[in-house]
Amino acid sequence: MAIDTRHPREIRADVRRGTLTGVTAGLGQGYVQANLAVLPREAAYDFLLFCQRNPRPCPLLEVTDVGSPEPVGVAPGADLRTDIPRYRIYKDGVLADEVTNPGDVPVFWACGVTPQAVALASKPSFMLTHSPGHMFITDVPNSSLAAL
What we know:
Elements: H1 8-17, E1 31-34, E2 37-38, H2 41-53, E3 87-91, E4 94-99, H3 113-121, E5 127-130, E6 136-141
Antiparallel strand pairs: 1-6, 2-5, 3-4, 3-5
């Protein structure tokens, strides 16, 4: 697998244009790749609390404002509606669709497969995640999150 050392902004631009549709493994070398979970407002707080209480398996990188697709803390100028190659839509905990552009949805941002599994187990009426291997590449260097 080829390693792509471009800055994440350039890689996200390719995703947004539709020229990059595959998995993100090996892209943005040295930058944090993050998982995405989008939940209805009424479920988001419980999910946030779960992540905060379980920081090692569920390291929370950012929570956007309700309705905002821009993760200003980890990737200013990015758009979570267009900057991930593929998304999954769940309804009542069941996979309903896989799309390349989820449209305008409220965004709750978190990192980690564990919180996604927990959220799905609670069978929210709606949940949107990244598809497996199709991660969001942040502007955050891996070294800034390294444990001592």
